[in-house]
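Below is a filled-in request sheet from our internal design queue. Each sheet records the structural input a requester submitted and the sequence that came back. We keep these sheets so that new team members can see what a complete request looks like end to end.

REQUESTER: design group, bay 2
PRIORITY: normal
MODE: inverse folding
CHAIN LENGTH: 581
BACKBONE (tokenized):
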């Protein structure tokens, strides 16, 4: 028994003698240090998660993510590539850490998503490499780029969408990235996705607030004494500012074939060049006809679009969003609001939620309707006041002058021929001229200088003349009078029709009159034909001098044909081109 015990102790002693206590101790210490490193990494990971979620500004969140990732795994360089919103999977933003500003300037343009960066877009899974250059998808580095070998790439997700990729290169200790490094970065990327989503929601809320503020500003502006043109300009300015567009413009009109580019924000205004744009075949015409908003990625490539980039001073435009100006679903479209960006800023266009500017456009249209209603009320008030003044002039002043003229005319018969009789006749003629001028003024009071519907103004003028003179009066239009006659000619046209009808009422003793206003062959022609007694010779010589002067001012002329008992035909014509030198 004693011998067996002694031999067992002896074998244990030999086994202990063969053990390398230093190696064992080093292994134990390594495991202890590994556990401590893991705990330290977990603590740093938690600190990093807290750090990246400490703010809501997206740019700040992205920068904190790359800095935290670089510190956690000991990477010299870190970057976060953000994907664009469109179908093309390209880098929209590239946030980097580790390179000095001078190095970045020497490298030049930031990456666009080729090589390994693009590989992670197509296959969003963690990728760990010992040597970047050895991978078949490696695209190489540009000149002046610092050397890089080890690589770790991890996708950053927001819900089910890949927001971008986190890239880490050049482990500080010169070794490759480990599985533990990958696990840490994957965990950080998961937290980064949450932080990015929160920051994105915050940005969306700020954008919505900006659109609401813009709508409130427009409503407040239109509540004051603002003209419709000023209101449209304010709509274009605010829409461009809030959307980040390069150019914004407003096209007015409810007829798809009769649209006009009214105001522009962000580009010079050349009214003549803008009026020459074929708006009846454009995206604006399509939106007015259908009432549906339209967005295109490239205005120059869409066959339905008119590209305003050809206008002098305008940038070369790419994406365009065209929104109907309509106050509510039951109202017609009164125009469109267009927002356009250059091709280099396609990502801003793609990030814009169309519902925000669409809502702004509807509210702006409602505010514009209120402004126009206020303007219409002002015009009605002005017309009522003018009508009252016209009635007073006609019923009081004209009748008194007419009575004075009749009294002087009867007195003339009692005077012998001589200077006194001639002076009295001259006074009677002056009274007649004054009555004619007052009647022309009465007709002019019924029209507004700012009116744009020339045909309606002529119709109203003729109707008032028919009611005043108790005649059968026929009016006929030929050609596009409403859209062809320029404003400078329109004012004289109204005066000519008014004075011609006044002369008929004073001298013709007619029972019916026909007025024809025609446009054709680049010429405007007005004819007034009556069935009266014909014009006296003195009226033919001097009474129509004013009409001849108005025609001559535009390079035209006046022709009068009259015979006693056979009526009179007055023809007034002017060219529709520029007046002669």
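RETURNED SEQUENCE:
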């Amino acid at each position: 028994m004693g011998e067996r015990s002694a031999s067992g102790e002896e074998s244990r002693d030999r086994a202990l003698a063969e053990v390398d206590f230093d190696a064992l101790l080093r292994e134990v210490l390594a495991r202890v240090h590994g556990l401590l490193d893991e705990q330290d990494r977990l603590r740093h990971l938690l600190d990093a998660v807290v750090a990246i979620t400490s703010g809501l500004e997206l740019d700040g969140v992205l920068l904190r993510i790359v800095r935290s990732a670089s510190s956690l795994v000991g990477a010299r360089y870190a970057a976060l590539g953000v994907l664009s919103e469109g179908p093309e999977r390209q880098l929209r933003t590239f946030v980097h850490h580790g390179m000095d500003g001078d190095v970045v300037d020497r490298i030049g343009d930031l990456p666009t998503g080729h090589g390994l960066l693009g590989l992670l877009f197509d296959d969003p899974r963690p990728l760990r490499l010992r040597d970047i250059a050895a991978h078949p998808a490696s695209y190489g580095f540009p000149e002046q780029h610092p050397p890089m070998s080890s690589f770790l790439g991890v996708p950053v997700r927001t819900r089910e969408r890949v927001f971008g990729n986190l890239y880490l290169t050049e482990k500080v200790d010169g070794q490759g990235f480990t599985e533990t490094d990958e696990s840490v970065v994957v965990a950080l990327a998961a937290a980064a996705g949450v932080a990015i989503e929160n920051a994105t929601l915050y940005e969306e809320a700020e954008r919505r607030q900006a659109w609401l503020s813009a709508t409130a500003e427009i409503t407040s502006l239109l509540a004051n004494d603002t003209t419709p043109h000023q209101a449209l300009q304010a709509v274009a300015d605010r829409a461009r500012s809030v959307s980040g567009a390069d150019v914004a413009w407003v096209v007015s009109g409810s007829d798809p074939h009769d649209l006009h580019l009214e105001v522009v924000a962000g580009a010079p205004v050349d009214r003549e060049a803008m009026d020459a744009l074929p708006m009846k075949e454009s995206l604006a015409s399509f939106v007015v006809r259908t009432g549906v908003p339209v967005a295109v990625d490239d205005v120059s490539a869409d066959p339905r679009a008119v590209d305003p980039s050809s206008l002098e001073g305008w940038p070369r435009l790419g994406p365009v969003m065209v929104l109907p100006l309509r106050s509510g679903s039951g109202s017609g479209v009164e125009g469109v609001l267009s927002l356009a960006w250059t091709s280099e800023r396609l990502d801003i266009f793609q990030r814009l939620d169309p519902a925000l500017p669409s809502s702004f456009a509807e509210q702006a249209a409602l505010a514009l309707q209120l402004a126009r209603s206020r303007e219409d009320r002002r015009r009605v008030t002005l017309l009522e006041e003018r009508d009252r003044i016209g009635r007073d002039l006609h019923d009081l002043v004209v009748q008194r002058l007419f009575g004075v003229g009749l009294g002087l005319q009867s007195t003339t018969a009692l005077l012998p021929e001589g200077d006194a009789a001639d002076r009295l006749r001259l006074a009677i003629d002056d009274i007649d001229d004054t009555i004619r001028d007052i009647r022309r003024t009465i007709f002019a009071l019924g029209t507004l200088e700012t009116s744009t519907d020339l045909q309606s103004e002529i119709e109203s003028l003729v109707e008032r003349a028919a009611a005043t003179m108790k005649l059968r009066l026929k009016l006929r239009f030929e050609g596009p009078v409403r859209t062809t006659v320029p404003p400078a000619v329109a004012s004289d046209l109204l005066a000519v029709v008014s004075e011609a009808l006044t002369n008929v009422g004073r001298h013709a003793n007619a029972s019916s009159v026909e007025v024809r206003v025609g446009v054709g062959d680049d010429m405007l022609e007005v004819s007034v034909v009556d069935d009266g007694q014909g014009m006296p010779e003195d009226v033919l010589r001097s009474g129509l001098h004013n009409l001849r002067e108005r025609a001559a001012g535009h390079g035209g002329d006046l022709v009068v044909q009259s015979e006693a008992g056979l009526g009179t035909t007055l023809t007034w014509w002017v060219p529709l081109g520029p007046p002669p030198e």
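SHEET NOTES:
- The chain has three domains: 23-203, 227-371, 452-581.
- The chain is about 50% helix and 20% strand.
FILED BY: M.R.
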